[in-house]
């Protein structure tokens, strides 16, 4: 799976970093590690309002058990969809993404087809499916979400991540083309598309995307990590090393730093191992 960074958007969707590690001996290829962040909705469209809803959502990151207990009590008092959504997100945070996705899909099913909140709920469900390793259902949820909100770039990136996780880079690229037509400056979309081009052996296209991403954000660690892989593929050892050291520097405590360190160690071991 190769889910990439999605920044927070108006739909309230968050997908966090997953990156590529170069591996030997089959040449400079990439293996992937993925992390998906809790899909908490900080911005509209929300499906409820009020102090209890806000308090329940605020507990999700630090005290998901407390959020679950609050949601359960609130449901018993007629908390409705807001309580159900918070319970779903609490289950995800507690390590039960499938349960949370089921609840979110059920909530979405009670909404009219074109409703923006339906799109948000299905987008959250798709992220939960990705967290649980069920990329097929994630792709289906994302597709339904996009049907309700076809111009939502964040939802398009969720769909692209799901396609990428299913090893369908051409499908991911098609979706990312739509996303980038809507917002050509989305660095996360450019980096994800670069990785998809790479898996299709279209290194020139991949390099064009990642160069553009770094032009937009010179310190984006995912872009630096990806460009290092591409540079290594082209035999540019010094360029790859520079990118990975830069990525490690700008994200010293994150997943990218670990992956960059692994790549640098493998680079130091050298192609003699091939």
Characterise the protein shown here.
The chain has 274 residues and is mainly alpha-helical. It has a domain at 18-37 and 152-273: Alpha Horseshoe (Serine Threonine Protein Phosphatase 5, Tetratricopeptide repeat), CATH 1.25.40.10. It has 13 helices and 2 strands, in the order ββααααααααααααα. Strands 1-2 form a two-stranded antiparallel ribbon. Helix 8 packs antiparallel against helix 9. It is elongated and about 65 Å long. It starts with 17 loop residues before the first strand and ends in a 5-residue tail after the last helix. The model is unreliable at 1-34 (pLDDT under 50).
Supply the key terms.
single chain; 274 residues; mainly alpha; Serine Threonine Protein Phosphatase 5, Tetratricopeptide repeat; two-stranded antiparallel ribbon; 13 helices; 64% helix; 4% strand
Distance between the termini: 25 Å
CATH architecture grouping of the domain at 18-37 and 152-273: Alpha Horseshoe
As a percent range, the share of helical residues equals 55-70%
- How are the strands of the biggest sheet laid out side by side? 1-2
Give the CATH H-level superfamily of the domain at 18-37 and 152-273.
Tetratricopeptide repeat domain
> Would you list the SSEs in sequence order as H and E?
EEHHHHHHHHHHHHH
Question: Any idea what the shape is?
Answer: elongated
**Strand composition percent:** under 5%
Largest sheet: 2 strands, antiparallel
Give unreliable regions as ranges.
Answer: 1-34
- CATH class assignment of the domain at 18-37 and 152-273: Mainly Alpha
Number of helices: 13
**How large, in whole angstroms, is the Cα Rg?**
20 Å
CATH topology of the domain at 18-37 and 152-273: Serine Threonine Protein Phosphatase 5, Tetratricopeptide repeat
Would you tell me the overall average pLDDT? Answer: 85
